[in-house]
């Protein structure tokens, strides 16, 4: 668990207070690259904790609580848009004094990372996205995002996630206590903020612009994802410089269920391509 004295804060250009943390175990005489990790919707920087030990010996690892999640402030009615979420990534780079960074995201965090690579390519060294398609509007025909919203409001976030846990994890393989931790962490977030986030992401589709991503890109997809189809993930192959990998048989939340594998693949990709 992250203690508050290890979390830093800065004000985005619209005044929203954002929380982040830096983990850096690189050699002090080396000029280490920075990796920014973007958690999924309904999460926080805590969800990426298991990646740190793999990455932080080679890179300065920065984890951001996206606006309205974790310790970051909930924005006002006009403070949640894809461009704004991408601008938060850029302003975080400015805050920590980095001109260009490697950006890796999970699910909705990956959508934000992808859009940053399109909107602000000069700030991206590489892109990595896990269980991510370019906007959830693509999958709205077979995934009931309005049902998610109704369930979060009527059942509560924790009950909703417990009921749908098999869509996210192979429950026969997760450790005892993991699911309790996962749903408790998610339930710390404000329900109406999560509703806003699901609404935004399920109305987003920039698949027609995916080939504008020009930085080296690692795309890792779960082979057993009930939320996105293989055809929807295949769109990612249009990225010109794309390392496309499939984790066969795994449901959606690969970054939580297989964090060491995800981080190891990212480390190897960055050391080879950066």
What's the architecture, going by CATH? 3-Layer(aba) Sandwich
Number of strands: 8
Q: On the 0-100 scale, what is the average pLDDT?
A: 96
Estimate nothing, just give the exact number of structural domains: 1
Q: Report the CATH topology name.
A: Rossmann fold
Q: What's the CATH H-level superfamily name?
A: Alpha/Beta hydrolase fold, catalytic domain
Structural class: alpha/beta
**Low-confidence parts:** none
3D shape:
globular
The neighbouring-strand order within the major sheet is: 1-2-4-3-5-6-7-8
Helix amount: 25-40%
CATH class: Alpha Beta
Element-by-element helix/strand order = EEEHEHEHEHHHHHEHEHH
Cα-to-Cα separation, first versus last residue: 30 Å
For this structure, the quaternary state is single chain
| % residues in beta strands | 15-25%
**Radius of gyration over C-alpha positions, nearest whole angstrom:** 17 Å
What this model shows, in words?
The chain has 11 helices and 8 strands. It is an alpha/beta fold. The chain has one domain (4-273): Alpha/Beta hydrolase fold, catalytic domain (Rossmann fold). An 8-stranded mixed β-sheet has the order 1-2-4-3-5-6-7-8, sandwiched between helices. Strand 7, helix 9 and strand 8 (242-247) form a beta-alpha-beta unit. Helix 2 (82-96) packs across helix 3, helix 4 packs across helix 5 (157-163) and helix 5 runs antiparallel to helix 7 (178-187). It is globular and about 50 Å long. The mean pLDDT is 96.
């Amino acid at each position: 668990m992250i203690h508050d004295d290890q979390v830093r804060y800065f004000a985005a250009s619209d005044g929203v207070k954002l929380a982040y943390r830096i983990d850096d175990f690189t050699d002090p005489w080396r000029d280490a690259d920075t990796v920014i990790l973007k958690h999924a919707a309904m999460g926080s920087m805590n969800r990426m904790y298991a990646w740190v030990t793999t990455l932080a010996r080679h890179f300065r690892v920065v984890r951001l609580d996206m606006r309205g999640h974790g310790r970051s402030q909930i924005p006002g009615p006009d403070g949640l848009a894809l461009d704004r979420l991408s601008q938060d990534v850029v302003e975080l780079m400015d805050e920590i004094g980095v001109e260009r960074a490697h950006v890796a995201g999970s699910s909705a965090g990956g959508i934000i990372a992808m859009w940053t690579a399109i909107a602000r390519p000069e700030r991206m060294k590489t892109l990595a996205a896990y269980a991510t398609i370019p906007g959830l509007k693509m999958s709205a025909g077979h995934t009931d995002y309005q049902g998610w919203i109704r369930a979060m409001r009527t059942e509560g976030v924790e009950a909703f996630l417990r009921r749908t846990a098999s869509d996210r994890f192979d429950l026969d393989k997760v450790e005892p206590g993991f699911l309790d931790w996962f749903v408790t962490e998610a339930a710390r977030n404000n329900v109406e903020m999560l509703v806003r986030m699901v609404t935004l992401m399920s109305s987003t589709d920039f698949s027609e612009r995916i080939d504008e991503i020009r930085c080296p890109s690692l795309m890792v997809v779960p082979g057993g994802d009930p939320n996105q189809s293989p055809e929807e993930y295949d769109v990612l192959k249009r990225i010109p410089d794309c390392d496309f990998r499939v984790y066969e048989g795994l449901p959606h939340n690969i970054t939580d269920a297989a964090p060491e594998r995800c981080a190891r693949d990212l480390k190897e990709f960055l050391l080879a391509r950066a």
